Amino acid sequence: MNDDGGAERRYEISDDPARLDAARIHHWLSTDAYWALGRSREQQDRAIAGSLNFGAYEAGSGEQAGYARVITDRASFAWICDVYVDPAARGHGLGTRLVAAARDRLAPLGVRRFLLATKDAHGVYAKLGFTPLAEPEMWMSLQAG
Questions:
Q1: Phi first, then psi: what are they for 122, rounded to 5°?
Q2: Torsion sign over Cα 12, 13, 14, 18
């Protein structure tokens, strides 16, 4: 069990899908995450099923306090998304720890390119070595629907 840097609560990070609180994750994302507002429960459940998922859990109660989802081929590429920490658990480094756990879990498999997008958490990810795209003109996106 890893502690959270000396704060009053201890948290552990796990990629065990059986520990995920899917209802809580859906509530967090669909009501409070700017990138997923209004996402349906069915869509969220499909996203969880098709991804590598990480939860942050309070050590004493086991209550889920954070979540991160990774879309990956488990060989060369990973897209880190849906990183969310419950407002009551913020300030303990859980967002950074969730992303570090994803990186550390996939790096031994040869994954070398990790991408993510953020509007307001650049500092969180910079702690782990993320930088703006070196050549953004090479990247394209398609917004369907």
A1: -55, -40
A2: positive
